[in-house]
Amino acid sequence: MRTTQANRRQFLKAAGPAIAMPYVITSSALGAGGRAPASERIVMATIGCGGQGTGDMQGFLGFPQVQMVATCDPVTGHRENAARIVNDHYHSRDCKDYNDFREVLARPDIDAVLIGTPDHWHALITIAACKAGKDVYCEKPECLTIKEGRAMADAVERYGRVFSGGSQRVLGDYGDWPRLVRGGALGEIKEIYADCWGPSGDCYLEPQSVPPGVDWEMWLGPAPWRPFHDSLISGGFRPYRDYSGGGMTDWGAHRFGAAMFAAGLHRTGPVEVIPPDGKDHKLLTYVFANGTRMYHGGTGDITYKGTEGTLPGRHKTPTARVDMEGYRGEGGIFGDFLHCVKTRELPFRNIEVAHRATTVCHLGNIAYWLNRPLKWDPVAEQIVGDPEANRWLDRPKREPWAI
User: CA geometry: angle at 388 spanning 382 and 392, to 5°?
Assistant: First the structure.
């Protein structure tokens, strides 16, 4: 016994603080102050710290199980501002800011990333994050092209990651409407009107000098090179095709996605897309295999027309409340994602649902850009009999970026 005690004293004396430190457990590690214990926390980073990215980040900071540890953006002011918000929230200086997202993904302590970059970066960072073993919450529209969306879905499945798209406006905006529609309050759905702005186009902004603190090459990334303009780094990129699909993919991801979910079309796609011709087709028209028609336009939101009623408008009361897929956990789509990170369930807006919603938006843009009808195979995900239109399913990427 005396020998054992002596050996232990000698060992502790030699090891010094290195062995003593683990026995000091802080109150924050145990979950004091409303925070989850360290073992229950989800360690996150924010990649893309403009207005939407930082806004989403602040939403995640409201969950005690989240520990935000890093911010990343090629605009120094954006990432430093986001890091300041995080550090003020935790009353610490532990959040580190990065210029290059690859440094963030290389950190083994990070469990999940929030991607709030411009649209042209979503797919590349999502796929890299999946390869790095991170779960992903990605703002809508989840991809710049249809092929990117499929590549994202393949990566999520291949690497076993949890992915949630960033459209919270299905149940969040429309309350009980999806249950009414699915419960038969309108009878058989015949027509849907989903209003949003139009497609993106070419960028003709005047060149400006790149200011200090902006890594313009990294901001452009896979997009074609063009001179700097300050509106692009200030949220004004959406009208331009190199970075976004315009209003069609911005609010279209919300409204087309919500309409397809309510009508039970959210796991498929249209079979035909017809642009307006000023005669038989006043609005861009999507035709689904079951005969439902969805139009781009209407009264400023979503309108459903069925055989026995309309929304908004008169409709019958369903005989039974519909038990349908919905958010898991608590706290809307953020809470849904965090719950699924822990349980490994499918989030409400999982990658397949997100991909189908954005596919509709992209197909609408292609029909507008080419000004001709498209036949779409939602299983093969190909435009039938139109090689030129099929080339729009993806875009070339500027080296060295590739999927």
Answer: 65
For residue 383, the surrounding DSSP H or E stretch is strand 382-383
- Which two structure tokens, joined as six digits, stand for 144? 């710049």
CA-closest candidate to residue 74, choices 258, 281, 217, 271: 217
pLDDT (tens digit per residue) in 374-401: 999 999 999 999 999 999 999 999 999 9
Instruction: Give the phi and the psi of residue 311 in degrees, each rounded to 5.
Output: -135, 125
DSSP, res 31: T
Q: Same structural domain for residues 128 and 201? A: no
Q: Are 80 and 173 contained in the same domain?
A: no
User: With contact defined as beta carbons under 8 Å apart, do 398 and 221 qualify?
Assistant: yes
Contact, 105 vs 317, CB < 8 A? no
| 354 and 280 fall within a common domain | yes
Structural domains in the chain (count): 2
**Residue whose token pair is 């692009």:** 232
Is residue 15 domain-resident? Answer: no
Give residue 38's pLDDT band: very low, low, confident or very high (50, 70, 90): low
| pTM score of the predicted model | 0.89
